Amino acid sequence: MSDFTGKVILVTGGSRGLGKAMSLGFAEQGAIVIIVSRKQDSCTTLAEQIVQAGGQAVGIAANTGKIDDIDALVSQLKADYGRIDLLINNAGTNIALGPLIDLSSEQFDKMFQVNLRGPWYLASRIAPIMAATGGGSIINILSVAALRPPSYNGFYAATKSGLEAITKVMAQEWANDNIRVNAIAPGPYRSDLVDSSIAAIPGFEEGMRDSTLLKRIAETDEILKPVFYLASDGNITGTTLIADGGLTAS
Q1: Which of 34, 180, 206, 215 has its CA 20 to 30 A from that of 70?
Q2: Is 11 helix (H, G, I), strand (E, B) or coil?
Q3: SS (H, E, C) 86-123
Q4: C-alpha to C-alpha distance for 234 and 250, rounded to whole angstroms
Q5: Residue 193 and residue 93: Cα distance in Å, rounded?
Q6: How far apart are CA 1 and CA 229, in angstroms?
């Protein structure tokens, strides 16, 4: 594993669930972690926890579904740090569970803005900063729904499939600037999104657990091993690492 000491790492959706685990994990490895989430309180609380434990972190409130918020965020980071070594596009939403014929265009627009447009726009603004400082790494967090779209979760699957496609294009277009772009497709991990699906859909928890070869829902911090792997220096780019307990192989 690479040495992340002193690396400036931006984690969107970084104050809870998988994002929180990644923020804590990189801070423990000596990185300077920028925790981004919609709510300042949750960002500040986690950043203070990291600092009290001897790490380096700052929390910044930004809605990555809003272009103006992203522009302000990037301007602040450029002024404060001058570089970003790793961007993890983790922020996501899933507000449209149900049959496609019952869903609304407003729900589609919201999910598109957060799950696809936001990661693209943020990465496209961070990439020039990375290029000017010798390169960097971008990791887009997908879902196995991108690879095996489930019924009643079509909008989520569509936006995550789109993010996988754009990951490959980012890798193609930015390779000459020494920017590696990869994705991780998590299966059932303990997270707010999974918990909301469990609450909304009868039998969802049992179904997710039993759909994996390992017959369990992974703990949140188990995401760290695949994330550290892709964040480490190497020649891997344009790929999707599936971390799903064997769900897509079952």
Answers
A1: 180
A2: strand
A3: EEEECCCCCCCCCCHHHCCHHHHHHHHHHHHHHHHHHH
A4: 30
A5: 7
A6: 7
The answer, yes or no, to whether residue 179 has pLDDT greater than 60, is yes
Burial of 228 from C-beta contacts in 10 A (0-12 / 13-18 / 19+): middle
For the chain, give every domain's residue range: 8-241
Residue 202: how many CB atoms within 10 A of its CB?
9
How does pLDDT run across 67-76, given as a tens digit for each residue? 999 999 999 9
- Sign of dihedral through CA atoms 47, 51, 54, 55? positive
Alpha-carbon gap, residue 222 to 134, rounded angstroms:
30
Tell me the average pLDDT of the chain. Answer: 95
Q: What is the pLDDT of residues 110-138, one digit of tens each?
A: 999 999 999 999 999 999 999 999 999 99
| Residue from 132, 138, 140, 134 nearest 115 by CA | 140
Q: Collect all residues with Cβ–Cβ distance below 8 Å to 65 and sequence separation of at least 6.
A: 91, 93, 110, 113, 114, 117, 118
Using the Cα atoms of residue 184, residue 189, residue 192 and residue 194 in order, give the sign of their dihedral: positive
Rounded Cα–Cα distance for residues 140 and 90 (Å): 6
SS3 31: coil
Per-residue model confidence (pLDDT) at position 204: 85
3-state SS, residue 186: strand
Query: Would you please indicate which residues are annotated as catalytic (active-site) residues?
Result: 156
Domain 8-241: CATH superfamily, name plus number: NAD(P)-binding Rossmann-like Domain (3.40.50.720)
At 243, list the tokens: 């971390």
